[in-house]
Amino acid sequence: MSDIGTQKRSKPAREDDAAEGAGAVYQLGYDLDATINADTPARLKAVGNPLRALLLDLILERAMTVTELAERVRKPRGTVAHHVDVLVDAGLLKVTATRRVRAIDERFYGRTAHTIVFPDSATDGDLPFIADARAEADLSDGHACAGGFTLRHARIPAELADEFTARVMDLATEFTRLPRGGSREYAFLAGVFPTKRPVAPEDPE
Question: Which residues does 55 contact at the CB level (< 8 Å), separation at least 6?
Fold first, then answer.
């Protein structure tokens, strides 16, 4: 299974210049489920569009109107409204509140679930999200910005791999709930997977 939160496993009020309290949990201001399955063609198609995936991520900051989303992604309001409608029809977004602005009811949209879980068949044969991460990554600043990478290996039973994967997924969810602030977006990419390396002891004859 995979999820977008998004993760893949075997697959908000304002943005201040400073974080709103180190160590605090970011509050969305609306209720949502923990997970939703991308188990229909409509949902898979909805999240497969890069702009719609971006809208889903932005709404993890807080519920937003189409106008606010259009300003954030620098796209025409009509374009964003269409993509929001697609996400609503797919059951991935919902109206969380309305307000009256110049005799017009403006809707705030929020996610229906914090994590969107994909079936294993949704992968393209590569490690999940690697292509997305490569396309999004800004490595031009070198060491000027925070962040880092690591690749580790351990010969462990499958049960321990599953337990560790669950902890990593919890950490990924925690990452998306950190207080918003600053002028840069950071991404968290993680995975636990079996390798082809011949490191196990040979079976005794």
Answer: 69, 73, 80, 83, 84, 87, 93
Residue pair 56/92 in contact by the 8 Å Cβ criterion: yes
- Structural domains in the chain, CATH included, are 2-122+144-176 (1.10.10.10)
**Cβ proximity of 63 and 29 under 8 Å:** yes
Q: How many CB atoms within 10 Å of residue 83?
A: 22
Integer angstrom CA distances of residue 98 from 56, 70, 91, 132: 19, 17, 18, 34
Q: How far apart are CA 60 and CA 113, in angstroms?
A: 10
pLDDT tens string, the chain, 205 residues long: the values are 444 554 444 332 223 333 334 445 456 778 889 889 888 889 988 988 989 999 998 998 889 999 999 999 999 999 999 999 999 999 999 999 988 877 788 899 999 998 888 876 556 677 888 888 888 888 786 655 677 888 999 999 999 999 999 999 899 988 988 888 888 889 999 999 999 988 777 766 5
Residue position matching structure tokens 């409509």:
42
Q: How far is CA 38 from CA 44, 47, 149, 150, in A?
A: 6, 8, 29, 30
